[in-house]
Design a protein that fits this description.
347 residues, three-stranded antiparallel beta sheet, mainly alpha, 6 strands
Length: 347
């Protein structure tokens, strides 16, 4: 059991920031839905949504769903995907890309291009270690949806730990259950996933070219030394580790290896690309500098627009929304850079 709780400290990072990553991932195709007057969005005001063909004097011949309606840096966008996105954007009122006027088609394609552009650059710029981390985190989140940890189960574990603390005469204060409930449920969830992947795991120590293997997956000496660097703060290396402790170390490292392998095998291409895109976007935005002055200018524009629209909504203070404005401006800056160099061809 001890090795699993050691692992919890390593794997818990895989869950950090997932809500934020999801928000970024979802925004790749809907990032400006709240700004319908933006020039980057398709303005549907010129179309009679109840009768899309009304503005056109002659019936429009639509193409098959498998038709390539655009290319983005050589990647194809088929009409089926464009139709589905258009249906979502218009809440089902317009469902055929070919019914849009040429200008609106171009703007819609730009929206559809963004996820493809982000995926391409993410594939190029992210390291293999980062990609594996993203795949594993995504797989764990997906796997966690099938595991239910109830409050009663968490309470039972809490009571057991509290009893042990009293038995050992621990002087540390025991926090109330409600204060630690969510954290305990997360740890129990992680433990359940680790237990599942470790079932019947075949772990072997190799005294030659590698540290060992788990289910045939190699664990290199370099990986073992990196783990020991973190666990012992540089006081121990694989070569100096006693033989009877080497397998224990591999047992601690094995779940991460197995989860990464399972993630690569079970996640679909779309799931992998979506996860990489979200992570890259988050990483890129975090390194995009937006000054307080730029944020203030963005806030002033928001105030001006609200007054022009005679909005009755209460306007929050600059300080309360400054970070959100900076995030939005960083996102727009990253997107602008991607779109600037994109080769988009609408057919």
């Amino acid at each position: 059991m001890k090795k699993y709780f050691i692992l919890l400290g390593i794997t818990v990072g895989l869950f950090q920031g997932t809500a934020y990553a999801d928000a970024l991932k979802n925004s790749l195709t809907n990032m400006m839905n709240e700004k319908e007057d933006s020039s980057s969005m398709v303005n549907l005001g010129g179309i009679n949504l109840n009768n899309p063909q009304a503005p056109t004097p002659k019936p429009i011949k639509t193409r098959p769903s498998s038709t390539v309606i655009a290319t983005v840096n050589g990647r194809k966008i088929i009409k089926k995907d464009a139709d589905a996105y258009l249906k979502q954007r218009t809440q089902g009122k317009v469902t055929d890309f070919d019914l849009l006027p040429p200008e609106q088609r171009g703007k819609l394609v730009k929206e559809l291009s963004l996820p493809l552009l982000v995926v391409d650059v993410a594939q190029k710029e992210l390291s293999e270690v980062e990609k594996e981390m993203v795949y594993t985190r995504t797989w764990m989140r997906k796997e966690a949806q099938s595991i239910k940890i109830t409050d009663e189960q968490a309470k039972e574990v809490y009571n057991g730990l509290s009893f042990q603390a009293r038995e050992n005469n621990s002087s540390a204060p025991i926090p109330p259950f409600d204060q630690v409930k969510d954290r305990m449920k997360m740890q129990m969830l992680e433990k359940a996933i680790v237990t599942k992947v470790m079932k019947d795991a075949d772990i072997k120590v190799d005294g030659n070219t590698s540290a060992g293997s788990v289910n045939g997956i190699t664990i290199s000496v370099e990986e073992a030394n990196k783990a020991l660097e973190q666990m012992t703060k540089g006081k121990m290396t694989w070569a100096a580790l006693p033989d009877n402790d080497k397998k224990k170390l591999l047992e601690v490292m094995a779940p991460s290896k197995l989860m990464t392998a399972e993630a690569k095998k079970s996640l679909s291409t779309k799931e992998k690309e979506s996860a990489l895109a979200g992570f890259w976007m988050q990483k890129k935005m975090s390194t995009t500098e937006i000054s307080d002055k730029m944020a203030q200018e963005g806030y002033d524009k928001m105030i001006k627009a609200a007054k022009a629209a005679k909005s009755k909504q209460k306007i929050p203070s600059f300080e309360s929304v400054k970070n959100n404005i900076k995030m939005q401006l960083a996102q727009e800056k990253v997107v602008s850079s991607l779109m600037k160099n994109a080769k988009i061809n609408v057919k």
